[in-house]
Amino acid sequence: VQFVESGGGLVQPGGSLRLSCVASGFTFSAFAMTWSRQSSGKEREPVAHISAAGRSTNYADSVKGRFTISRDNVINTVYLQMNNLNPEETTVYYCGYGGYWGQGTQVTVSA
Questions:
Q1: What is the pLDDT of residues 60-101, one digit of tens each?
Q2: Largest separation between any pair of C-alpha atoms in the chain
Q3: Integer Cα distance of 90 and 87 in angstroms
Q4: In what order do the strands lie in the sheet with 67-72?
Q5: Segment 14-42 mean pLDDT
């Protein structure tokens, strides 16, 4: 099982980023996927979840209305569109399922 996240970077407060995660090593279309974030010394925080077929999504209250999770089961990729980012959301973002996570992609929100 492998996840490779990308799309992170430096963005100004109020800006947007689109994260991507390519999965391999399992039947991607059969599993729900989650984006989470974790800062050093803090617990992992799930931020968005999408069902296997992509018909159902759930979000943490802190990101509702700003983040959108989606997936393309043809190319084994899950996305996280993040809008109106704030500096407190500076951290590493991960995709995964069932306790398996990728290496993450750093998002830095700063002026």
A1: 999 999 999 999 999 999 999 999 999 999 999 999 998 899
A2: 41
A3: 6
A4: 2-6, 17-24, 77-82, 67-72
A5: 96
